[in-house]
Amino acid sequence: VNLYHSHDLWYSCSYPANASKPVAQPTMADDGAVATLVSMGFDAPSAQSALKSCGGNMERAVEVLLGGGGGGDGGGAPSSSSSASVIRCDSVSQYSVPDGRSACTCIALSAADAFLSAVEGSEGGDSARSVLTPSFLSEVVNAGVRIYGTLRLRSAGGGSAEHMSAEEVLSSETGRTAYSSLGLLGGVRQGVLSSAAGSDDSPLGLRAQLVGVLGEASPSEWTAALITKTPETVVCILPPGGGEGGSGGIYALIDSHPRPHLGTGEGSYVAIYDNLDGLLGMLRNLFPATDLGPDVGDMMAMMYNSFDLYAMRRAK
């Protein structure tokens, strides 16, 4: 065990809109796949129908649900509780760029920096959507890998940890220079993933941590929250307004890891939601709590399920 610490849009930077893709014969929908689609904001009947029409292929089912066509009953709109959109760049991920395999922290910081710079002074969701494009994903992935490579080269004998925390990056000369326009909102926040009922609302839960960031952030500024569940780091975009709905803003997850099993394609992607519940559902899919069994002590289990959160804003 490694203890190292739909809305109606679908973009792709590698597949043309009219590209034909094979569709498997209808099959029974897997309960786990249905649950995953529901957590992404789609209603259960539509999720079941899409999965059956696509032979259980999660990626294709998401395309159908988002209006991409290709079978079933014509797709289904996301549930009213949380509509979702996915912007994907299938040709670029941290694994497709040379030496980018462990660069996710630098990529997340680059994404936070680029996004917050682009939306500075703007509060609405439309401005944020216009920034979050396949080109944006390609640019921040490549920028993050370049900065990660410089950090590794400048470390004594190349001896820095392969997976670097945001703290390590931002405390380095390279990091301070590259991310000089980012400011940390408070200190490093630590939480624990748990599958127990109501655990998200506990002080250490994901929801409580993100709500805390929203409460501390300026009501007129966007915030980026880097979340590291070792060895992976992603970045969440939180809207101005200090709470659910904000000022008509959006909640987004930017991820440089390919997750085809979640229907987000073969490369980097952004998942966009209109409320915090949708974002939390996707985060639970990425970072599920792990039961290590009765032979593992409580402290070790907490360490394994721990995560770090860094709330970032534009530097003052």
Summarize the structure in words.
With 316 residues, the protein is of the alpha+beta class. It contains eleven helices and nine strands. Strands 1, 2, 3, 4, 5, 6, 7, 8 and 9 form a nine-stranded mixed β-sheet that branches. The longest helix is centred in the middle third of the chain and has 21 residues.
Strand content: 15-25%
Q: Write down the overall mean pLDDT.
A: 82
Would you count the extended β strands for me?
A: 9
By oligomeric state, this entry counts as single chain
Query: How many helices in DSSP terms?
Result: 11
Radius of gyration: 19 Å
Poorly predicted ranges (pLDDT <50, ≥5 residues)? Answer: 1-12, 14-27, 68-81
Task: Give a quick rundown of the structure.
This protein is an alpha+beta fold and 316 residues long.
Write the layout of secondary structure elements.
Layout: E1 10-11, H1 31-39, H2 44-53, H3 58-65, E2 84-89, H4 104-118, H5 125-131, H6 134-154, H7 166-171, H8 173-178, E3 182-184, E4 189-192, H9 206-216, E5 223-229, E6 232-238, E7 251-255, E8 268-273, H10 276-286, H11 298-304, E9 306-314
Parallel strand pairs: 1-2
Antiparallel strand pairs: 2-8, 3-9, 4-9, 5-6, 5-9, 6-7, 7-8
Helix pairs in contact: 1-2, 2-3, 4-6
Observed structural traits:
9 strands, alpha+beta, single chain, 316 residues, globular
